[in-house]
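User: Can you help me understand a structure? I only have the sequence.
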Amino acid sequence: MDFAQRLVALSWESLGYFVVEGLCVGVREADLLAIKLDEKDRISERIHIEVQVSANPAGVLRNKSQFGSSSKFPIESAGEFIKKKYKNEKIMKAISMRFKTDNYKRVFIHGRLKDKSQLKAFSNENIECIPIGKLVSEALKANPVRELIRTVQVAELLKIVEP
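Assistant: Let's start by predicting it. Here is the structure, written out as C-alpha cells:
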C-alpha cells in the first residue's frame, strides 16, 4: 500500500469507518473497502474506494495500454480506468461477497489531475469524486490528530496535493 492509500484509510477511520485495505482478486485489486455502523451496530454504509494521487500529474487517468492516446481522448481514457478499477466483474463479485450486497457506494479519491474534465466520467457512473486534501481536512475536523506520526503524514501529504 502506498502512502496516499494509507492516509486515505486513516482519514476514513477518523470519520468513523472500519477500513479494509487491498482486496486482491487475481492480479486486480480494490484499494479500500469501508463500512460504517449505525447506533445499533448495523451496517449503515458500504464504500468501495479507489485512490489515485501523484505529486506530479504528468498525464491523465488512463488504462496503461492507452499511454500514447490518453491525452487526446481524456474522457474515454477515464472510462477505461473506471472499467478496470470499478467495473471489473471479478472485483465487483468479490466486493459484493464481502459486503453481502451489490448495493454499495463508489468513491474516487484524487490528487491533482492534469485534466479535471475526466472527473465527469466518474460522476456519469455515479462515482463520487473527492480531492484528497478535502478528505483529510474533514477527517481532522471530525477527529483531531492524536498521534505525532499522523501529524507528520498529513503535513507531508499536503505538500504533495496542494497547488
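Now, to help you interpret it: Strands lie at 18-25, 28-37, 43-52, 105-110, 127-131. Residues 26 and 90 are 9 Å apart (CA to CA). Let me know which part you'd like to focus on.
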